Amino acid sequence: MLVAGVDCSTQATKVVIIDAADGRIVARAKVPHRVSGANGRRESNPEEWWTAMGVALRETGRVGDVAAIAVAAQQHALVVLDADGVPLRPAPLWNDTTSAADADRLIAELGGPAVWSAQLGSVPTTAFTVAKWASLRRSAPTMLDQVKAVRLPHDFLTERLGGRAVSDRGDASGTGWWSPADEGYVPEVLALESVGLDAELLPEVLSGAEPVATAGDGAGAKALGLPSGTVVAAGTGDNMAAAVGLGLAPGTPGLSLGTSGTVFALADRPADDPTGTIAGFADAGQGFMPLACTLNATLAVDRVAAWLRLEREDVEPAGEVTVLPYLDGERTPNYPRAASTITGLRHDTTSKQILQAAYDGVVEGLLAALDKLDEVSRCVDSGAPLVLAGGGSMGDAWRATVSRLSGRSVRVSMEPELVAVGAAALAAVSLSGGAAATIAREWASRKPSLTIEPVERDEARRAHLRAVRELLEPLNEVE
Hints:
Layout: E1 2-8, E2 12-19, E3 24-32, E4 43-44, H1 46-60, E5 66-73, E6 79-81, E7 91-92, H2 100-110, H3 113-120, H4 129-139, E8 149-151, H5 153-162, E9 166-168, H6 169-172, E10 178-179, E11 184-185, H7 187-190, E12 204-206, E13 211-214, H8 219-223, E14 231-233, E15 236-237, H9 238-246, E16 254-257, E17 261-264, E18 279-282, E19 288-294, H10 298-308, E20 322-324, E21 341-343, H11 351-377, E22 386-389, H12 396-406, E23 410-413, H13 418-432, H14 436-445, E24 449-452, H15 459-471, H16 473-476
Helix pairs in contact: 2-4, 9-13, 9-14, 10-11, 11-12, 13-14
């Protein structure tokens, strides 16, 4: 029995076709799509996601053999549709920072960060869907009458596949208008002056493995070549799917290095962090997944390497150099208007030291967020390995930096498409039941993995990085 998992990420759509019996990937494909914008704006045409998914499925050569499919996609992006389900405009993406002022206004309108955190588990930043919707209402009010549906990227693709308007609790928990604790949309948020959103425009919320429809129910699935009767599962957000793909167990923290960086863990209760550092998300099942996300990770380090005309692995110990790589602003800490800074330069500073300092800046920020996550949710086992995922986890410099600054044992997943694998596990559960993470762990047990034994944590370097970040905080908060 073959199942398909889709990962519609920021830069590309990836598809894996997996034999559900043993986790063997029998086919995979990747199709890029465009991101446009400047001066903080980042957006994509949702129709490109649909086209890319269709092309990728067909390129696998096995789409006609698929028994079930699930989509995972980038969180937060705002998709607005007309009465025919056609996007009215490009979707502002999670890393679009133009709605920063709208996020600040929303926080005040509901009564402050503590109220948001208590009711929704998260304090909205510019990344959240609610801030992007508030920005649209403010900047394009004449479009509002045409909006007949509001979706996330994974919602949009799943609805096209199965003909049913659904989201899942994991992805919905990143909107800013759905509460993981109460398992529902929050009327007080929808009624805010800056939001004014009718709940009828929003999808039904399920768990990620619930069957939505079959291919025979939706013309979209037929158009992609899926057999009639193929089960469409609800799917989830990319971070939740990554946790599933890792087979993450309670107590074991995950750290993902992609365009963005994330740290996360599974929890049995909703998070409540009024500082806004930790987003109190739900997972793709029935539990919770507190998470912190940084805007700048591999893309930022690669940019520094390109400026210095170095390869990614051309590093040497950074010495006194410190780089805060806030090239696109930052989400954790919440500095949407910040720029990158570099300090500690000497006459004998080398370009390789500067590149290592960029790695250090990214990783220390993520590890500081992980410390905060454990403080808030008490869901991290201090003796558990740190599970490393994402494209950056394939790089020696990334692995070495995480090992040195964390002092933990590091386990590296050797599967580069964990989000798509997690989506495929949700598809498998939609057919046969069970737990998606258990299925993913069984699949992973048959594949090679890498474990890096713990080394002494570089406390001096981490303390120096923290001190520089705190010193530059007033500058990073400037409008």
